[in-house]
TrEMBL record, chain A:
It comes from Microbulbifer flavimaris. It comes from the Bacteria. Residues 26-182 form the Thioredoxin domain. Keywords: Signal. This is Thioredoxin family protein. SUPFAM superfamilies: Thioredoxin-like. Residues 1-24 form the signal peptide. It holds the Pfam family AhpC-TSA. InterPro entries: AhpC/TSA (IPR000866), PRX-like1 (IPR047262), Thioredoxin-like_sf (IPR036249), Thioredoxin_domain (IPR013766). The keyword Signal applies.
Amino acid sequence: MKIKHSLSRWVASLLIAAPMVAFAAAVPGEKAPAFSEVDAAGKTHSLDDYAGKWLVIEWFNKDCPYVKKHYGSGNMQSLQEKYTGEGIEWLTVISSAKGKQGYLEPAEAMDVAKNHNLNASAPFLLDADGSMGRAFGAKTTPHMFIINPEGKVVYAGAIDDNDSANPAVIPKSTNYVATALDASMSGEAIPVASSRAYGCSVKY
Amino acid sequence: MIARRLAALLLTLVSFLLCGPVTVFAQETATGDHVRVRWLAPETFAAGEPATIGFYFEVDPEWHVYWRNAGDSGAAPRFDLNIAGAETGEILWPFPKRLPIEHLTNLGYEGNVAYLLPLTPDTGAREIVLEANLEWLVCKVDCIPGFGTLRLERSVVGREVWDPADRDLVARFLARVPGAESSSPWRATELAEEGEQVVLTLQGRGERQDFPQVFPLDGGLLTAAAPEVERLDGEVVYRFQRVPGASPVRAAGFVVSDGARAWSLENVPFGQLTESPAQSLWLLVLAAFAGGVILNLMPCVFPVLSIKVFGLINSGAGHRLREALLYGAGVLATFAALGALLLLLRAGGAAIGWGFQLQSAPVVLALIALFWLMALSFSGLFEFGQRLMNLAGSSRGGSFATGVLAVFVAAPCTGPFMGAALGAAAVLPAVSAMAIFLALGAGLAAPFLLLCASPPLLRRLPQPGPWMDKLRQFLAFPLYLTVIWLLWVLGRLLGEDGWLIGSLLLVALVFAIWLGRTISRGGRIVGYSFSALALVVAFSALQLREGKAPVAGTGIWAPFDPVAITDAREQGRGVFIDYTAAWCITCQVNKKLVLDLPEIQDVFQRNNVYLVRADWTDHNPEITRALAELGRNSVPVYAWYAPGASRPELLPQILQESMITGLFEDSSRQPKEDDKP
């Protein structure tokens, strides 16, 4: 009887937990999911390492046209340069699985970081098993997240408001990440905390 | 060899001349990886006439392009337009399909698609020049953006000249562009936020039994993944996942689609949208009450009630009131029971209309026997009246029974009066439907209650006297007419056997009465036994006959959909449209006796006929329009479009099997011959 009871409770909790796992995501206003990933240079980064700091996380796939839009134009690198210069941390993650578009071995990743003029806080984080991407609910490249010093997600979504693949539209677009960071630095509320993340699907 | 070259050169020259300058041709298409884009536009525009042109995306198999809300990833195409000589409207987006791509869901199109653009030439313009800078994204799993510029130069002349294939393409995709909310067969009744879910409740107008696909317009608010769908008593509930952290909004837009067409619900505010349904519910309840009052005057109800009232004139006020209340209780209880039955059957998936008692042969036969006996009694053939009044007049059960009887008697009369309210009741939520039933009942009971409760009114009724007998005898005639009508219904239900069984029973009952009055001793017992025997025989004969009656199968009948009908006709199929309504008894009878017979269904199937049941129970405006086009404003209407025929043939309102089989006697061999080559 008792075994039966506890078994049913266990099954019930599994049933409740299953969708929670499936829908796990970095949601604005909630705590960021924990992660621990190794970068192309072999250094491990975890959420705890960034406690007390502002952190931007960016999903990357070198062959995605939307990533190319922001890297080919230099837009992403200049954002990285500007905000890391203000003491904000910036991690760029590759969640492409081995054999899928955008997957990079560590050595290749170092080369790509170099020829893309990556200005992030670390070389690419290599999440080939997709664990970090799934924990964050990263759907597209480039999907952007901002985490505040308390470890809470304050922005999740697209980099800007224009889902064109044409780099020519960048100057006319409103950059959500820059707007959110500028507002936070000056102690104001973030005007847009969530948007539809446009781009290519993450190749898990 | 030389000759062939020469021929090729000539051909090229000729095609140059035919196609016009090659430069224009080149500007009219744009090509990218896996995509080719071209105009769908007329060769000339008509001055001042609005036109719809299109950007036709021919996409490689398995690749797709996107809807206005691309979904979880991807991007809608962009159209940057420069136009001279015309006014353009907004891009029209045909409704999309959900495309699951790995862990995401996108909204887009499999295969080719036309994005449409409405355009009206400026007055006085002689030429239209349209330049479109396009950007699109084409995806399989990986995505490839494409860019291109299309240029269109067309003269504006007296009339629009189209390439027929292109015009058909525009028409095909225009039919898939969401229509106005007012014409939607579904309307939103509630939009609510429940945690990370956004819950949309839709209600079908009319008897829509299927449920539509729903696509959110705002990808920033709702994910594109298919919502959980739950059907609840005439309503469909869709649970969408919110985009995590999306900021709260006041309203959301959706497109609903039945798979062939779509409608847009542009601006559904959050909260319960009770105002208009509640208002219309009150109107319906009022209409039902008024209809119930009118029912008192129906020839099938009035005689019963007037006799009842006269029976009560001499009794005391307290007694009268009690009788009146009992009568009202009988009416309401019967309506409640019938309503519950209707709801139960509806829940069982059977959408049925009101007069359904009259679709059951035993019920009809029982009513025939009852009215016949009452009519005979009114005529003075025997004192059944006294007995009935003893039963229905003095005892409590009597008044209650009169109430029950009144409802059953009234039901056939409700059809023409209350069609709309009952049609609504057939699809409304249970509580509203029951409210309408009870309002009908209250209306039916009200005059009788009023008469009994208010002595001044009752005193105005004439004093009983010999005139009452005359009146009673007179009132027998509507009852005889009712018997004939019911016999007709039985005949429609069962064919000639129905008439035979019904009228034999009538004679047997008269004979039983004669026996009872003629045989001096024990005559009454003989009479009762004989009538009981006659009833048993009649009902078992009925059972036997009805066993052979066909089971109605409605699965093969497609709901009314002009697009599907046009498609079927274009494919060269014959189309048979049954314009019907649940409250139309002739329609039900035709259905049961002809259309749904296995033999007839066989004939339809052999000839590959597209069968359409246009249900007008709720006076669906589209069906009203289709009926008007046929020059009709009532049902039944049976329209037959022979394969390839441009005009329908209308069949008589009372169908016979031979009329249907006759349709195929000339043409039945043709399809087979066509199949051979």
